[in-house]
Amino acid sequence: MANNFIFGTGPFAAETAEILEKFHIPIDGFLKISNDNKRLPQNIYRDIPTIGVDEYFNIDKDSNIFITKKPMILGETITYLKQHEYLNVYVVSEEILFSNPNTIEDLYQHLEKIDFNIPFLNYLEMNIVDQCNLNCKGCAHFSNIYDNNYVDVNKFKEDLKKVSDKFFLYNFRILGGEPFLHPKISELVKIARNILKKSRIVIVTNGLLIDRLDNETLQTISDNNIMISISLYKPTYEKIQSIEETLKKYNIKYLINDDYFKEPEVIKQFQTRLSLEKKSENNFASEICYGRFCRFLRDGKISKCYYPLLIDILNKKYGTNFEISDDDYVKINDITDGWEAIEKLNKPIPFCDYCREQEVSFDWEDNHKNDKNKFSYVLKK
Q1: H/E stretch holding 19
Q2: How far is the C-alpha of 247 from the C-alpha of 222, rounded, in Å?
Q3: For the segment 209-229, what is each residue's pLDDT rounded down to a tens digit?
Q4: Measured distance CA(358)–CA(121) in Å, rounded
Q5: Which of 45, 59, 297, 323 has an alpha carbon 20 to 30 Å from 159's alpha carbon atom?
């Protein structure tokens, strides 16, 4: 009988272990990439041991490995398991937390077995709208200083089709700005689901428009199994009851602040580590930057984060001189080997030289349309 391991050590891993046990799938260990056993978390679930996989190479290649990590941070784990030629690797969808699988068929609907013969792109996000109805100070996507801009429906379809031809895309996030400002959001949802039939699709929103959406839009989101991720800003918090009632009425799955396990808290601060000057720190900056996992699609290009493909907005507004090179992204049309493209997206890029070790936080504020202060976005010298 094959052994079973869970790659992950958080609450999601413990919840998955309990679910698998119900189907008589015993867990032999929790896995974590680590060289220091002292730092390995213990007591995750029952007395199942935690194993630092860099020191433990005797796991049978036929073992079943269930990955319980957020889609954004799956990349390192996928690379490790591919390099070590594991055969039975499954990504556990967070949607399993919203259901109560009763049969093995139900269970496997939430388990995506990875075929390493097909490039597995774990995460990709895309703005369908660049403007927003909140206009937060220091918006990382510069939505408060951008004029109205909606993605063209045909261009959206074309780029998604190209992505699906090159990769299996596991998680696709539809962003803005505020995505519900797009007048053809229902059509875009249908296109995305038609092309990405097995992908996890999420709309990221401040939620303020949800209880004002028409029946067709809400039903389309529900029918196409689209998840909603709500960013809990102060105005959202003030009407969260109405938002949740609307989503529940249409049986739409949702997360608040993208976390199932934490008690929702109002977002009170934004951060930046972006500098006006380059320094040769891209390896270190990339290593500590959470945004390095935010693979971003725009105009037929994919970058490892949103900055290279949006920074022109800042340049035009404030006359800054951020430089972009061809090495800061990959063109979908130029991809001949999907795994090579993923490897490039995993590595630091020249633009990372603009980011610093230090991070500056500032209080969240609304109503900063056409903000005149560039230091809401970049570090002061």
Answers
A1: helix 11-22
A2: 9
A3: 999 999 999 999 999 999 999
A4: 30
A5: 323
Q: Which fold has domain 4-114?
A: Rossmann fold (3.40.50)
Looking at residue 129, what DSSP letter applies? B
Domain 121-376 CATH assignment equals 2.60.40:
no
Query: What is residue 23's three-state secondary structure?
Result: coil
Q: Give the residue carrying structure tokens 């995505």.
A: 179
How many Å apart are CA 203 and CA 250, to the nearest integer? Answer: 15
Q: How far apart are CA 331 and CA 344, in angstroms?
A: 12
Q: Is 8 left (phi over 0), alpha (psi -120 to 50) or beta?
A: left
Q: What is the DSSP letter of 62?
A: T
Could you tell me which of 153, 155, 161 has the C-alpha nearest to residue 197?
161
Instruction: Say how far apart CA 236 and CA 267 lie, in whole Å.
Output: 10
- Write the DSSP assignment of 70-120 as a string of letters: -GGG-HHHHHHHHHTT-SEEEEEPGGGGG----SHHHHHTTEEE--TTS-E
Q: Say how far apart CA 200 and CA 121 lie, in whole Å.
A: 12
Of 13, 122, 12, the C-alpha closest to 76 is 122
Give 314's Cβ-side CA count (13 Å radius): 25
Tally of residues, the chain: 381
Distances in Å between the alpha carbon of 107 and those of 91, 98, 224, 227?
12, 12, 19, 18
CA angle at 304 for the pair 300 and 308, rounded to the nearest 5°? 70
Cα 120 from Cα 361, distance rounded (Å): 34
Peptide bond into 177 cis (omega under 30): yes
CA distances to 157, 211, 330 from 297, in Å: 12, 29, 10
pTM of the entire structure? Answer: 0.95
Rg (C-alpha) for the chain, rounded Å, is 21
Domain ranges in the chain with CATH number 3.40.50: 4-114
Region of residue 348 (left: phi > 0; alpha: psi -120 to 50; beta: else): beta
Q: What is the pLDDT of residues 319-377, one digit of tens each?
A: 999 999 999 999 999 999 999 999 999 989 999 999 988 888 999 999 999 888 899 89
